[in-house]
Each structure stands twice: as C-alpha cells, then as structure tokens.
Automatic annotation (TrEMBL), chain B:
This is Amino acid ABC transporter ATP-binding protein. It holds the Pfam family ABC_tran. GO terms for molecular function: ATP binding. The lineage of its organism: Bacteria, Bacillati, Bacillota, Bacilli, Bacillales. It comes from Anoxybacteroides rupiense. The keyword ATP-binding applies. Keywords: ATP-binding, Nucleotide-binding, Transport. PANTHER family: AMINO ACID IMPORT ATP-BINDING PROTEIN (PTHR43166), ARGININE TRANSPORT ATP-BINDING PROTEIN ARTM (PTHR43166:SF37). Residues 2-236 form the ABC transporter domain. Signal peptide: none annotated.
Amino acid sequence: MSVSLNFSQFIPTIPFILQGIGVTLKIVASAALLGFAFGIVLALFKIGRIKLLTWLADLYTSIFRGTPLVLQLMIIYFGMPQMIGFEIEAFPAAVIAFGLNSAAYISEIIRAGILAVDSGQREAAMALGVPYPLMMRNIILPQAFKHILPALMNEFITLTKESAVVTVIGAMDIMRRAYIVGGDKYAFFEPLLIAGIIYYILVMILTMLGKVIEGRMRKSD
Amino acid sequence: MIKVVDLHKSFGKLDVLKGITVKIEQGEVVAIIGPSGSGKSTFLRCLNLLEQPTRGQIWIGSQEITNRQTDMMKVREKIGMVFQHFHLFPHMTVLENVTYAPIKVKGMSKSDAETQGMELLGKVGLVSKANEYPSRLSGGQKQRVAIARALAMSPEIMLFDEPTSALDPEMVKEVLEVMKSLAYTGMTMAVVTHEMGFAREVADRVLFLDGGQLIEDAPPNEFFASPKSKRAQEFLEKVL
C-alpha cells in the first residue's frame, strides 16, 4: 500500500475553499442569533405561569431534540415547498433549521440559568416595584448568562461544526467546497483535511472569544 | 399607616399566621419579635405581598392591598424592604444598585438619581464605595447599601426582615446605627429582629408573635419589664 498525499496540487484551490468561511459564518451567526432570541422566549414560557405556553415550549423542545438535525434541514428545504408553494433558498433554509434546532437546546440552558439565580434577587426586585419584564431583562437574565456562558459557548461551537450538514442541501459552505474540490481532483483526503483545519481554527477562535467575554463578565466578582 | 385585620397565611397544611389584627401608625417604629417559626417574617412579607395572604385584609394608608384590583407594583414602590441576606444586585455597582429602581421604575433622570444616590450613600457612610461591586463589601456595608437602595424609592414605610441576623457581630452596630437615625427621621418602620437592645431603645411598640398569633402588643419598657403572657416571659428568659 502506498500513501500518496500531494498537497501542492491543492494550493490553488485553497482560496476557493476559504470563501466558504463567509458562507459558514453567515449561516452560523444568523442561526445563533435566531436560536438565542427564540431560546429566551421558550425559556420564559417554560418558567412562566401559563400552563399552555409551558406545555407548548416543552413539546417544541422534545420534537427538535428528538429528531436528527439533518432531517429537520431536509424537511425545511425539500419538504416545505410542497406545503407553502414556493422554493426556499439554501441559505434561509439552513438558518431556519439550525436556528429552530439550537433554540430548543439554548432554551434548556437558559431555563437552568434562570433557575440558578437566587430567588432573593427576584424578591428584591419585586420589593422595589420593578415590573416582571424589566426584572427579567435587567436583573435575572444578566446574572443567568454569567452562569451559563460556558454551556452557551458549547452550543455555538456545536452549531459551527454541525453547520457542515448544509452540504446536503447544496449551500456553498466550507464543507461543500472541499467536497467539490475533492471530486474535481479525484482526491478527497487533502481538501477534507484542509476543511477540518479551517473548522478547528474557527472553533478555537470561538473558544477564545468565549473566554474574553467570560472574563469581562467576571469583573463584578 | 398600616392596618391588618384577621390575617391568615397557610403553606399547604401548615398554618403560619392564624389571624393577626394590628395597626401601625404613621411614623411609628414597631419591633416584631418572637421565637423562630412564630410567623414574624411571614407577617412582614405579607405587608408588601411578597407572600399572598390566605385570608384577611391589609390596608396601606387608605388602600386595601389585599384587594385584587390594587396595582401591587405601585404599592410596593411606597414600601421599602430590607432583607436578612441583603439581595444586592451583584452585577451592578453600589451606585447602580441605588439608582436602578428610581431610574427604571420611577422614570427619574440618571443624573438626578445619581445625585440622590450619592446623598443616600452619604447617609449610610458609603460614598467611597459607590463604584465598587457588592462582592467587595463586608456584610455590614452590603446591608447599608441595601437600606440606601430601598430609601432611593422614597418609601413611606420601611420593612426590615432580620436585617442584622446574617452579620458578623462587629458589623451589627453600624447597621443598627443607620436604622436608628432613620427612625429619628419619622419613618414608619416594621422591624423583625432578634436585637432586643434595638427593640428596647428605638421601637415605639413591641409585637410579640408566637405560633402565628399576636400574643403581646406593648411599649418596650412595659413589655421587657413585665411581659404579661407566659410565652413572652419564657422567650425573654431565653434571649436576655
């Protein structure tokens, strides 16, 4: 058996693969934003007093955690046009699928974070006449986020890596481009390795970013 | 003025308050004492509806707060509360703790709130800590900030729930001094406390609770010199 790795022939293709970073980041950032915002709403439903909303939020979470992400993505991209009567582009389909999926996970993280805030904080806010929405926004959630930042970063890292499944709907992300290059040259190992390195560096940057934010939030300790 | 009529509170099957009727006049300082589990904290927490009474009425001034139509948030603005464990907002500086509610709840401008905040911090002797976070303060300092925070809403009534119980002994005095000077300004105060010295010296009346009932209601000199009930006698023997 002979090992024949030849990276030199792939050097010209690297800019093409690197262009995928923009696509990946756009999908991840939009999905993270959507997932985070919707995750907060779901978490508030879960801890709220309205039983119907709690039930709906729990049901939502159980469905999105209980089925494969790639299936959710394919239902939205390939399946939904049948229902709504028009095609969905790969980019919005990916953002919606990843956003809705991570909202389910993020809502659980945020719920745990809210419950971990000392109940005295709520009482102190109530005693000052602070209305519920303000109390959540200014007092409870900021403290909850400090506790859950590592878990939240974890979720964003997972999202970055899992975004590679958009390949199945043809979005031109890092993964897809590496795959195309591989097909072009009849050699997959090298371009996939390059893609792997790019993902790893992205995740490392994300990890560092998380540490910086965490450090900044610690200033009140 | 606070008027409480036949106040009951149960947690499940446990009856914590069994019909308390009492009146606290404007400007009065009332010390609420009694053995642990007597319901004194629950009683205090009912006065701003942190606990929802099971039965009975509470009036703050001319407003019946136990009436469901009353906007509780508005009422709470008029009632300051100080907790045993301070409950300062840990992610805000001392000054931000004191200015948050006036700005967000009352709509005071930031600069007005800060001027008032610094004034209040002056009164509790903590101007130098204005920009520190609560984690850098001692227990006594935290409680003084908590008092300033409550006062920043210009309340008509102040409730204190065992304000010195979580403090190291050497810090009790600084908090009691602040409370004492507050009492002399004519603030209406209800204080759940184990500090018999404070009750004796500062309070106009002592309410002795036991088993969810108001057993005695008397001026401190009378109460401490000659408690009428056997339960109060036994309690005082243990604590004095």
